[in-house]
Amino acid sequence: MIGLTQFHAGEDCILAQLPIYFLKLHVTPPDTRIQDFAKEKTRMDHSRLSIAKTGESFAATHLKTRGYKILAQNYRAVRGEIDIVAQDGDCIVFVEVKTRRSLKFGAPQAAVTTQKQRQISKVAMGYLQAHNRFDAPCRFDVIAIHLSPQLELLKLEQIENAFAFQANVGF
C-alpha cells in the first residue's frame, strides 16, 4: 500500500527555519487491523441489511393480508428510496419500514425524523410524477417492527397517516 505521511525537518536542518511540512512517499505493508475492520464492517452492513430486508418482508406480508396491493418495493429515485408503495382502495400509500432487534436506541418509528419525512416526500412526488398519479389521494404510513435476535417477529405496528406530506421539499 502506498501512502503519504507528513514529517517536519529537524532543527539541525536549514529548512527547519521555514514553517513548512514536507510530504514523504513511502510504502506501507497492508495493515491487517484495517483489513479486519473492513471485514467486520461488511459483516455488520450485511447483518443490518438482512434485518431491514426481513422487516420489509414482514411489512409487505402484513399489508397484503390487509388487502393492500403492493405497487413497488424499494422504489428508488435520485432523491432516495421508499420501502413500499402500496394501494389501499384508491389511496396510494408510501410506507417507511423501520426494524429493530433491540429498543436500546428507542422505538423504530422514532427514526423517521423530519429530515427523513422530507426525503420520503420528495421521492413520493417523483413517484406520482413518473406514474402520472397526481390526482390520486395518498398518505404516508410507518410500519415499526421489533424482531428477536433470531430475526423472528415480536411486534409489528402500522401507523397510518404517520406524517403529512412535507410541502417544502424543494422538488
* Main β-sheet, spatial strand arrangement: 3-4-5-6-7
Q: Tally the helices: what do you get?
A: 2
* Helix/sheet category: alpha+beta
Fraction in beta strands: 35-45%
Please give a handful of descriptors for the protein shown.
alpha+beta; 36% strand; single chain; 171 residues; Trna Endonuclease, Chain: A, domain 1; 2 helices
If you had to describe this structure to a student in words, what would you say it looks like?
- The protein has helices at 32-65, 114-130, and strands spanning 2-7, 22-27, 69-77, 80-88, 91-100, 138-147, 153-163.
- The longest helix is centred in the N-terminal third of the chain and has 34 residues, at 32-65.
- It has one domain (32-163): Trna Endonuclease, Chain: A, domain 1 (3-Layer(aba) Sandwich).
- 30% of the residues lie in helices and 36% in strands.
- It has 171 residues and is of the alpha+beta class.
- It is globular and about 40 Å long.
- The chain has a five-stranded mixed β-sheet.
- It contains two helices and seven strands; from the N terminus they run ββαβββαββ.
Task: Explain briefly what this protein structure is.
This protein has 171 residues and is an alpha+beta fold. It contains two helices and seven strands.
